[in-house]
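From the shared-data thread, chain only:
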Amino acid sequence: MQRILLVFLLLAAGCAESAQQASPDKAPAAPPPAGTPAATPAPAASGPTCAGEVCKPPGECMHYSGMVEGVTSVGCYIPCANGKACPHGMSCIMMHDGPGEICEPSK
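Structure, as tokens:
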């Protein structure tokens, strides 16, 4: 019984070692060839940043209080209060526990 256990442990240790050697994320990255242009950064996203999210125009960062007293939330929405028109394919709805009148995709 002890021999079987010893063989099993040796095999398990060998498998773990070979798995570490084969792991591609452990290999060092090779430097780029000489004359290779540096990577260009991604273009800055347009629109305001709202709690870590970038609002895509015509969205706006809106702060609002929901049904729970004292809790304030933020989110990107397209407001449509005071008769402001929604973009094509969207309808103005009232989100009572949210920012109020906002545009949502038409059903």
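Residues 49-105 form one domain.
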